[in-house]
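Sorry, can you check?
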Amino acid sequence: MSQRCIVFLISDTGGGHRSAALAISSAIQLLQERAASNGDSGRVERSEAKATADARPGQGNGADAGAASGAGEAGPRLKLEIVEAFEECGAFPLRQFARLYGPASRYTPGLYGLIFHLSNHPGRINEVQHFLSPLMLKGLERRLSELRPDVIVSVHPLLNYVTVAALRHLARPVPFLVVVTDLISAHHSWFTEGATAYVVPTEETRQLYLARGLDPERVHLLGMPIHPRFTLPVASREELRAQLGLEPERPVVLLVGGGEGSGGLRTAVEAISQARLPVQLLVVTGRNRRLYTQLQKEQRKWQVPAKIMGFVTNMPELMHASDVIVTKAGPGTICEALSCNLPIILSGYVPGQEEGNVTFVERNGVGVLAREPRQLVRALQELLEPGSTLLQQRIESARRLSRPQAAFDIARLILSYLPPPGQPGPWEERQAMTQVATAKVKGR
C-alpha cells in the first residue's frame, strides 16, 4: 500500500504555531481513524512520537468525521510530519534570529512591536523575504525532497514566501495551504501570493486577504484550530471541582501565562491576594519551572486559596471548572476559552501581532484588557459579584463566537487536496510521465 505525506511547517517562535499544527494533525488522525473504523484501511503515522504522547486526544470525540477524504473506501497510509523550518532548514544566522523571539517579545516588547509594524507593508516585507529566503531556501528544498509531501501546510507567516519559491525551484505541483493564526492583526507576510489555499480564522482576516487583491476563491473562513480534546464531553463543573480539590461554591479564577508561563502571573496573583477577593485560584505556570518554584514558596502568604500547576494536559477540564480566565492575548488560549464558554480577562499582549487579539476579545464582548493590578481586581469584582448580568452576557457572547470544530474543518480541507486513491502524487508524476514517454518510444 502506498503512503501519503502531509508536512506542517512551523517555527517555535512562541508556542502557538506548534499548537496549531498539533491541533490540525490530531484532527486529521481522528478523521482517518473514524474513516478506518467505517471500513477505510488507511491509517496515519505521526512523526513526532513525544508530541503524540503529549497532545494526542483519546478516542470517541464527538466530531463528525464522516466527511474525511476517502472515508468508506480503501486508502493509503498517511504520514504527518511537523518540521521546525528555521531549525531544520535555516542557515546561520537565521536559526539564531528565530531563537531571539522569546527574549525580544518578553524583554523589549516595544521594539518588537515597532519591527512588526514597520515590516507590515508590501514593499518592506518583500525586502525582508529577499533577505531571509537565501538563508533557508536550499535547506527547505532538501528537506522537502527527503519527505516528498503530497500536501504542505504552513502555520507561520515568515515561511510562506520561501515555500512558494522552493516549490517553484523543485518544479513539483504540491498543494500548499496557509493557515493564519492571528485573529485580526494578521501580518502582511501571511498572504504571500502563490499558495493553493488560505485558511483564516475571522472575517477581519478575510478582509485583509481580499485587500491584497488575491483570488477570493482561495480563501476559507474556518476559524482558529484548537486541539480536538476541546470537543470532548467533560464532567459537570461540580464534579470537576471535586476532582481538582476545589471548594464547590467559591468562584474559580484560572490564571494562565502560556506555555512558557509568562504574562505577569505573579503580579496578577499578588493583586488578587492583596484585594482578598472571595475566589480560589488555579495557576498554570507552563514550562516556567522557576516561576512554579517561586509561587510555591510564596503561596503560604496569600490571602486566597490556590492550586499551582506547571505544564498541564487537562486544560479543557481546568477551563470548564472555572468562572473566568486571566491570560495573555495568545489566539490559541483565547479560542480555547471561548470553546469552554469562559469569560476572558487579558493581562497583556505582544505588541504588533497580538494587538488585534485584544480588539477581538473586547469588540465581541467576551472580555477586557486589564494590564494593571487595579484594573484586574476591578474586572474580577464586576464579573463575579452575586447575580452579575455581565458574567452571563460574556458567557453568551463566548458561546456565540466559539468554533471548537475548526481543526476538523481545516483537516477536511487539507485531506481534500490529497491525490485520489490510485493516482500518482506530485513527486511521482514526473516519473510516471517519463515511463509513459519511454513506453511510447519503445512501441514505435
